[in-house]
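for the recovery benchmark. tokens below, seq after
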């Protein structure tokens, strides 16, 4: 398991903010397009649907093709977030955590879309409700093995 420093996590915030801006926009557009298709009884089912349906109107095929392309872009953006090394805790709010250390304890650095920097951490079991300011982080300790 990789542990991140506060500086390493903060260095990712601008990239995360840009990615989540696109993710939120794309999800909103996908929801609207899905509702439009659903109202006409042509909503896509599952991730691997075919855009073209025999006998479907041209605009439905266009909308389903657009939906499939947008879903692929969204999936790529979510994967880009994960490739940074953080864990997405809530896609709707843009909440992510990174593994970190406080003293000898494993903790999670915590950032949510809209925050200028990583300002909080929490114990692994505490979750968002247990967030504490990063000013309370202790310097990581290296465990020494005595022989």
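predicted aa per position
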């Amino acid at each position: 398991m990789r542990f991140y420093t506060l500086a390493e996590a903060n260095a990712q915030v601008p990239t995360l903010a840009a990615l989540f801006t696109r993710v939120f926009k794309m999800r909103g557009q996908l929801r609207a397009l899905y509702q439009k298709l659903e109202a006409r009884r042509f909503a896509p089912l599952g991730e691997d649907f075919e855009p073209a349906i025999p006998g479907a109107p041209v605009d439905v095929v266009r909308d389903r093709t657009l939906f499939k392309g947008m879903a692929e872009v969204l999936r790529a953006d979510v994967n880009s977030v994960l490739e940074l090394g953080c864990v997405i805790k809530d896609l709707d709010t843009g909440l992510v955590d990174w593994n970190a250390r406080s003293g000898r304890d494993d903790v999670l650095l915590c950032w949510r879309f809209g925050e200028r920097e990583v300002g909080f951490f929490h114990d692994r079991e505490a979750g968002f409700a247990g967030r504490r300011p990063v000013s309370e982080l202790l310097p990581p300790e290296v465990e020494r093995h005595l022989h």
